[in-house]
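Good morning,

Attaching, inline, the backbone tokens for the sequence recovery test we're adding to the shared suite. The designed sequence is right after.
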């Protein structure tokens, strides 16, 4: 019948109403002669409409009907389909959810019979039922066919809701167990002599061992072998290895019926490098001496499944004491800190947001959290010793180790994510953990999970909601029970014992758990609004503290800041409502002493951490304007300089916080990839801040002693790192002072006034106070400490013309006006330019003198007992090596190459490279070493609160330096090795470029 233009047939309309996306194609399929008896059957339409993908289900049904070998078989299938609702729901449910199983049914059209049985034993089969289902298999090909037939029944129960996700996962694990046994039986039958020589046990690990397998997953195993009575052990192990290898091939190899799944034995001792089969005593020796924390974590799921089950049970019993005491091992805490960090860097950037297993808020987060708590508390509570994630989570909640509400939310999220994973894999029976991007795939998955109105929208919303729950609870899971234990707000509620709380804190990196619990009690106890907000904040903050090298210090500093600001209305609200503020504060408080000390002197600076632009350093003009305004409002010079130093303290905190957060990274923003950018940030910010502080102090001194105008013009010239915009947190300010008497002023009075200014500035900037002092060092002046502290321009000119030495020309390379009379500063620069950039460069004698001075400094100035390979300033390939090499190039070539006329080391090095005065590779080596050495000095100051040029000897402090430099816990040795390697390469360049070796 031809449908008139603009009208549709009733069948077309019914198909649309039942969820078909291509009703025209469906009409054609229903027109097939084989379906004539069903074409108008309302039960068929209803059942197809219930399928995840009605179009796919109808296509699969047509293929299955067409594949029947004869009319009798076809009639039997169709009659059963019409008369038996269980078959109809199961068959069409599978066909609408799995293209791969539809292909299997088209190849093996009689296997639909596996879905007919609907008895109690069929609803929840175990290993025995699956072994019967595989009993007819005699070779790898028939094993695959039988396996798919059993899988068909599991999938049918799953998609129809007869089993929940945990039951389906357990059935998949039981089917895997039966399959491993069948494969091992085939291997033994193929090599009876090998089988007679050995006892071989197959231990399931991972999801198979935990009774929570996916549709498509590697099956992780470990093999244990022993000699049979009277057999030689060496030959027995060889025989067991051959059997194990054959068993793995039977399951893993691709045949005309495809593969089953890979059998992966890489969790065994030594991984791929270790023997495939070991004796029990060999396993025990390895785990006692060499195993890492993750290997004990893997053993949580160990379960004997095939072969000699008595030997397998002995293996589990022998290793269990080691597993449950893993938390007492020396390396447990750093291993846990490393594992707790979400590993997403290996996921392609375009896939992170779709990664269901390893992405943030994914399955791995739930599994790791549960396993860690099992390791910590399972040694004293045997109820926690389950290989199943959901069973263990339930036991943790029942024992008070996890909050009940948290456990319910996490259980719900985990079940949803596993269901989603099952539906994704079921479609093509391929191993994947990525959420599809195609709308058709998303629609099918959403409908399979019961989302029928707007399946794509509903699926995305549910997925985001559940991953958000996991992300939020992942850290709180560890810490919220600690707060419940100390706050004790709900009498009768099961909660952690004091001993269990201490155990957990130790496992998470806290060195003094008793003190930590006292801090928690002080912060979180009571029924006040403040305590309630703290109980909300602390579970997350404690996790961030534990991610540092010194969690105890982070918690102590947080208590101090909270005590200081606890009564201010904005403090806790800022941490609660501004997502970045709390994490930023946690990073800053646990990264060392300097930033917390600066903050505790003015806790209101916490507000900077919640402002999106609060950590951006302020430019020199704004800083100087603020400092001069504060000085102008003050009564007297001392009060004025106190105000200036207060601004300096706040801005030092801003810079240190930006540096720490940029180095550590946050959950939303990864660590700064370019360490040179952080070095530049600190150098520019601290140098600008120092210049503004000196300008304010100069203004205060002049106003106090002379009113509006000094009888002499006065300028401050920055030298060394100050002039080079390379100051660190603990650097002194190297300066020169220059003055020029005003017209008509008495020269002697002007000189006395200038000297008085210098003396008073130095005094005021070093007055004892809660603010860090600013030390002014003028030792680079003519005649050094023996010379006058301040000179006129003419005096400088006369000295440099008659007495200047080559080292003074070198020192003047970093000279730059920083405060005072700008015109006088420029005149000083005009005066010294011919000295620091001599026409035609340096003569041979001058070059020899510079090299001699450098060699003498290396020999005499290195501190006694210091390791020259680790001294950031004077050591091999350190700051001095790189800077003298660059400065020699400036002295020799600056007259001809304008780019070299800069006070900044990195800028000069880049200019030398651009002018082809140094090869690109050599310049990169020097730059890398200089940046690293500068960051080491900054890190030492941040961590210890006092300046230092070498790595701290204290283990925690050295680990904190490592964290700042980007090294994971337990990798301090790698940090030192990398430092030595990078600076050794730099020294080789220095030998060639500076010494001419």
């Amino acid at each position: 019948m031809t449908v008139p233009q603009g009208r549709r047939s009733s069948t077309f309309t019914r198909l649309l109403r039942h969820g078909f996306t291509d009703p025209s194609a469906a009409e054609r399929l229903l027109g097939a002669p084989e379906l004539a008896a069903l074409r108008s059957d309302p039960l068929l339409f209803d059942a197809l409409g219930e399928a995840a993908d009605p179009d796919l289900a109808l296509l699969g049904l047509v293929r299955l009907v067409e594949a029947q070998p004869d009319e009798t078989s076809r009639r039997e299938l169709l009659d059963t389909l019409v008369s038996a609702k269980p078959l109809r729901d199961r068959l069409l449910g599978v066909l609408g959810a799995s293209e791969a199983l539809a292909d299997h049914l088209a190849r093996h059209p009689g296997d639909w019979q596996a879905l007919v049985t609907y008895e109690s034993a069929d609803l929840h089969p175990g290993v025995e039922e699956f072994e019967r289902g595989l009993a007819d298999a005699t070779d790898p090909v028939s094993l695959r066919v039988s396996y798919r037939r059993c899988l068909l029944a599991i999938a049918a129960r799953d998609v129809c809701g007869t089993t929940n996700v945990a039951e389906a996962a357990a059935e998949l694990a039981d089917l895997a167990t039966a399959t491993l046994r069948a494969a091992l039986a085939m291997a033994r039958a193929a090599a009876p002599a090998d089988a007679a020589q050995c006892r071989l046990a197959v231990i399931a690990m991972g999801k198979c061992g935990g009774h929570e397998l996916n549709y498509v997953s590697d099956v992780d195993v470990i093999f244990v072998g022993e000699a049979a009575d009277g057999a030689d052990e060496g030959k027995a192990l060889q025989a067991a290895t051959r059997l194990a290898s054959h068993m793995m091939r039977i399951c893993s190899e691709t045949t005309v019926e495809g593969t089953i799944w890979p059998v992966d034995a890489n969790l065994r001792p030594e991984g791929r490098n270790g023997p495939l089969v070991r004796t029990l005593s060999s396993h025990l020796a390895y785990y006692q001496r060499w195993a890492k924390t993750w290997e004990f974590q893997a053993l949580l799921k160990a379960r004997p499944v095939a072969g000699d089950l008595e030997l397998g049970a002995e293996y589990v019993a022998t290793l269990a004491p080691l597993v449950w005491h893993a938390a007492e091992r020396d390396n447990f805490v750093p291993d846990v800190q490393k594992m707790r960090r979400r590993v997403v860097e290996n996921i392609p950037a375009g896939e992170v947001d779709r990664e269901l297993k390893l992405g943030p808020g994914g399955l791995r987060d739930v599994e790791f959290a549960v396993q860690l708590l099992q390791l910590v508390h399972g040694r004293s509570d045997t109820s926690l010793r389950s290989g199943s994630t959901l069973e263990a989570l339930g036991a943790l909640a029942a024992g008070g180790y996890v909050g009940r509400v948290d456990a319910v939310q996490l259980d719900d999220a985990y079940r949803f994510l596993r269901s989603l994973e099952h539906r994704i894999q079921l479609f093509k029976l391929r191993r994947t953990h990525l959420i599809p991007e195609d709308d058709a795939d998303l629609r099918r998955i959403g409908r399979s999970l019961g989302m029928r109105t707007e399946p794509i929208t509903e699926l995305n919303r549910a997925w985001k909601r559940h991953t958000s729950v996991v992300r939020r609870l992942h850290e709180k899971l560890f810490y919220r029970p600690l707060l419940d234990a100390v706050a004790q707000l709900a009498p009768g509620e099961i909660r952690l014992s004091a001993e269990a709380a201490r155990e957990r804190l130790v496992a998470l990196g806290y060195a003094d758990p008793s003190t930590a619990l006292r801090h928690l009690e002080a912060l979180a106890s009571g029924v006040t609004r403040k305590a309630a907000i703290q109980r909300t904040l602390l579970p997350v903050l404690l996790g961030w503290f534990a991610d540092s090298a010194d969690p105890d210090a982070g918690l102590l500093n947080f208590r101090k800041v909270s005590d200081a600001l606890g009564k201010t209305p904005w403090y806790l609200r800022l941490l609660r409502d501004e997502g970045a503020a709390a994490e930023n504060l946690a990073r800053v408080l646990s990264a060392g002493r300097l930033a917390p000390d600066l903050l505790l002197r003015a806790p209101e600076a916490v507000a900077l951490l919640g402002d999106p632009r609060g950590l951006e350093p302020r430019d020199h003009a704004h800083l100087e304007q603020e400092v001069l305004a504060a000085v102008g409002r003050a009564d007297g010079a001392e009060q004025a300089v106190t105000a200036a130093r207060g601004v300096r303290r706040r801005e030092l905190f801003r810079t240190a916080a930006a540096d720490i957060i940029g180095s550590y990274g946050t959950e939303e923003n990864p660590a700064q990839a370019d360490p040179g950018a952080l070095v530049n940030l600190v150098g520019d910010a601290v140098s600008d801040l120092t210049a503004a502080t000196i300008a304010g102090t100069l203004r205060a001194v002049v106003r106090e002693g002379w009113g509006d105008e000094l009888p002499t013009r006065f300028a401050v010239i920055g030298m060394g790192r100050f002039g080079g915009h390379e100051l660190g947190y603990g650097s002194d300010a190297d300066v020169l002072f220059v003055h020029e008497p005003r017209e008509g002023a008495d020269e002697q009075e002007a000189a006395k006034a200038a000297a008085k200014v210098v003396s008073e500035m130095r005094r005021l900037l070093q007055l004892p106070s809660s603010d860090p002092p600013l030390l002014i060092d003028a030792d680079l002046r003519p005649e050094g400490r023996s010379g006058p502290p301040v000179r006129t321009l003419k005096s400088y000119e006369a000295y440099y013309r008659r007495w200047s030495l080559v080292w003074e020309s070198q020192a003047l390379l970093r000279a730059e006006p920083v405060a005072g009379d700008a015109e006088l500063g420029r005149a000083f620069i005009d005066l010294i330019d011919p000295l620091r950039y001599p026409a035609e460069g340096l003569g041979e004698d001058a070059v020899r003198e510079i090299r001699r001075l450098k060699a003498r400094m290396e020999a005499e100035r290195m501190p006694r007992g210091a390791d020259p390979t680790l001294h950031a300033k004077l050591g091999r390939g350190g700051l001095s090596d790189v800077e003298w090499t660059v400065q020699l190039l400036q002295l020799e070539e600056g007259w001809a190459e304008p780019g070299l006329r800069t006070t900044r080391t990195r800028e000069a090095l880049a200019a030398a490279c651009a002018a082809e005065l140094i090869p690109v590779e050599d310049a990169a080596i020097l730059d890398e070493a200089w940046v690293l050495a500068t960051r080491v000095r900054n890190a030492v100051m941040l961590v210890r609160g006092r300046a230092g040029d070498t790595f701290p000897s204290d283990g925690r402090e050295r680990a904190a330096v490592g964290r700042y430099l980007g090294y994971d816990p337990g990798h301090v040795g790698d940090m030192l090795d990398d430092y030595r390697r990078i600076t050794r390469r730099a020294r080789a360049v220095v030998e060639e470029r500076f010494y001419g070796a």
